[in-house]
Known about the structure:
One of its GO terms (biological process) is proteolysis. The protein has helices at 43-51, 231-236, and strands at residues 5-6, 16-21, 26-35, 38-42, 56-59, 75-82, 92-97, 123-132, 148-154, 163-164, 166-168, 186-191, 197-205, 219-222. The chain has 245 residues and is mainly beta. The radius of gyration is 16 Å and the shape is globular.
Amino acid sequence: MYSATPIAKECEYPGIVGIYNGTSGKYLCIGVLLEESKILFDTLCKSLVGSAYTPNYVVVQSYQKPIVFTDLPSVVASTAKLLDPTGLNAKVFTASLNKPVLFNNACVQPACFPNANLPLSDVDLTDCRITGYGDTTDTLGSSSSTLVEVKVKVDPATVASGSLKYTRNDGLSSKTGPCFNDQGAPLICNHLVTGEWVTIGTVSTIGLKCSLGTSTAAAVYSLLKESTTHNLYNGLQTFKYTVPV
Length: 245
């Protein structure tokens, strides 16, 4: 995450997980917990997990790089499945873990996603974050050992589109933010009523160069029902923690 800052409070944003390759000793990409044995990630993350030597651990219990990985679940690449039930959006996937996680009152919790009981008017689009473990500079391999964030505001005029646009609070180019290995990073915004962080989008393209976004600008797929292409939202409603209670 280019020019990002470490998250000050451990477990501030439940449900965000790093996917760490045990062979290379590096984070490959970012995922989000849907259920005890399911994560959400993007197509490039799927490709990286499928092509990398296993195991690809899911770092769930802390924002810090673990010392011991053997107790962590890993991604079963062969279970990757499109989130969009129509198959029209081939960029966002779910995948199973080789063993379930145990939810607790700390980091290990399902992410909060848009649902029928969560109107967009309850989401503060001026108080949002993009989080990740990816490179913090233009240098490949400069990834962070702890979860970092970029604070952003989402342009409400882009909500109806399938791609959410944002501006960085620090004044840097809105084309920047997600960098190498930040594929699948969630865009989360504060819920005005409950204070929860709602995952309203997922990074589909990183900015290149990371510091400028001149070749490709960072892009985020919308998970909102208000999007005219809301198939990703529909796919999310099949998971038990997304269903309103």
